[in-house]
Amino acid sequence: MNYQEVLAAARGEMGPYCKVCPVCNGLACKNQIPGPGAKGIGTGFIRNYQKWQEICVNMDTICENKPVDTKFELFGKTYDYPFFAAPIGAMQLHYGDKYDDNGYNHILVKACADNGIAAFTGDGTDHNVFAGACEAIKASDGVGVPTIKPWNMELVKEKIDMAKAAGVKMIAMDIDAAGLPFLKNMTPPAGSKTVEELKEIISYAGVPFILKGIMTVNGAKKALEAGAAAIVVSNHGGRVLDQCPATAEVLPEIVEAVGGKMTILVDGGIRSGMDVFKALALGADGVLIGRPFVNVIYGAAEEGVAALVEKLGAELKDTMAMCGVHSLKEITKDCVRR
């Protein structure tokens, strides 16, 4: 199946919120929570997508005619492309009954590893979800990134132990999940973490630690101070705070502040290989892509993931070739017009 066929198949499998639109831009699912739409008036998701479209690429074909290299290294592991599947959870609540979180993660982790990339996995109030994700990553020789919610310190450490027992090479925390309703008013308290608390968590982890949900220069500097090896510039798809800027808008200033000092990833509305190129040109080292992976798994499971990775990879390679660059390191801000 090709990508369009996979999307067509998914339209009969999704729940009531996601419409499997030809372009996943947040318009049809606006302000639907639970569901994939953004919080409040629903502009966060839409703005994320639109701001990537406002960036143009600079074509230049007066160059050597040779193949492009999309290989990307992250913490000692080389991947075929600089994009990853983003962590998504509560599948049946948001996307339909076909897959629970464990079923989704087992397909996602293996299919991503088989196709030369890696999957970030989600977390939830059912702690079997995180355990199942770790099992899936272990079965794929540690290729995958378990993502922990900002629970209380004891539970965070318990989940770190679980992840390390599975042989993971890195661990993430979506710190912006502090804004999700189920984390509020928990006993013991869960949610936002201080720099000192993050230092303790990162030291305890003992493997490269990624903080997801950074949207300001100050936040990036605090993540660096806490010892994070990487950050993900992310507003949680607009699902935790309405009327945030788009990730494409804040990425350049964050890169200017901490670029070269830590790995910088970005997500939010990235839908094509050309969008990946734009993100790299703005200074990101790599990107995460979320909802499109949900669509293709609901449409065709492992075959759907293969079709999406092939599509994104082909678009990235074509954009690189037409802009006169042949490796990821050659992609600079001069490759785009804002």
Helical stretch count?
11
Beta strand %: 5-15%
The assigned structural class equals alpha/beta
Q: Which word captures the global form?
A: globular
The CATH architecture is: Alpha-Beta Barrel
Question: Could you give the count of β-strands?
Answer: 12
GO molecular function, one term: oxidoreductase activity
Catalytic activity: (S)-lactate + O2 = pyruvate + H2O2
Cofactor: FMN
Pfam families: FMN_dh
Describe the structure.
It comes from Anaerotignum lactatifermentans DSM 14214. Belongs to the FMN-dependent alpha-hydroxy acid dehydrogenase family. Pfam families: FMN_dh (PF01070). The protein has 338 residues and is α/β, with parallel strands linked by helices. It has one domain: TIM Barrel (Alpha-Beta Barrel), CATH 3.20.20. The chain is built from eleven helices and twelve strands. The protein has an eight-stranded parallel beta sheet. Helix 8 links the parallel strand 8 and strand 9. Helix 4 runs parallel beside helix 11 and helix 6 packs parallel to helix 7. It is globular, with a radius of gyration of 19 Å. The two termini are 36 Å apart.
